[in-house]
Amino acid sequence: MDDKDRSSVNNENPVGGEMGQSPLVNADIAQDFARATGWVVDRLRTDRSSFLETFIKKPLRAFYKSYKDDPWLRAATSTKMSAVINLFFVFYQAYNAYRRQSLWFASLSVYYAWLTFMRVNIVTYMQTLAADGREELRRYRKTGVYLLFLTTVVMVLGVVSNRFGYRPTYATHMLVVVALFAVYNVTAAIINLHKWRKLEDPLISASKALSLSCALVSVYSLQTAAIGRFSKTGDVRIINFLTYATPAVIFLIIAGISLFIILRVNWVLKAIGSDE
């Protein structure tokens, strides 16, 4: 093609130029691209709906139905939620212990970490059938032993921290977190005691004991936070009274629960002739 012919083509097809494409061809390409884009969008929408139905909606409906019909699943789910919330509080108190170099915060972190471990164990036991009832009774007894030991340590450290010059200091955000945590634990303990009253099983009883003990220690932790924050402006006599009276009452309650668990399991295992 000579220069004259090429110039003629360019003049007739200013859009395509030397490519030789007409506006009609460009329109076809745009339509093909639009159709391809629409197909991709529709496919993504269909795949997303299928994905949501298969992996999210359907499992949630099945879980809700099982949760509504199975009291054991409700008990296990409640214990899992408590373990997760306790775990957040463990990290929070560990951070406070590190920042403030406080033995009291460190002891709370260890206490709730051990309670979280015990809750996870209980959930694991709920989901696996024991060989017989004796193994569940032994697990129940371990819960009582651990509660008695841990509560004794925490109460002693609390008295030492608040009475002998090691009283911890609480920032405003710490006081708020401790208060919310105490309210949650007390509420959960009351709900669990009512909701699981018809489930007679050592593991359920252990979970209720843990929930109640956690609530009581949370109340004591809240009192310690209040004393640490307002000790300079409060009545010294009331503060001194609460420093000893509250941990003593809470210790007696939890010790009574723990001893009841231990002695009850020992009696049952002895009655059935198996306490290895």
| Element pattern in H and E | HHHHHHHH
* N-end to C-end Cα span: 104 Å
Structural class of the secondary structure composition? mainly alpha
Residues in β-strands, percent: under 5%
**Tally of alpha and pi helices:** 8
Major sheet summary line: none
Mean pLDDT reading: 77
* Portion of residues within helices: over 70%
Globally, the shape reads flat
Describe what you observe in this structure.
By secondary structure, the chain is mainly alpha-helical.
List the helices and strands and how they pair.
Layout: H1 3-12, H2 23-69, H3 71-100, H4 103-127, H5 133-163, H6 172-195, H7 202-230, H8 236-271
Short structural summary:
The protein has 276 residues and is an all-alpha fold. It contains eight helices and no strands. The chain has helices spanning 3-12, 23-69, 71-100, 103-127, 133-163, 172-195, 202-230, 236-271.
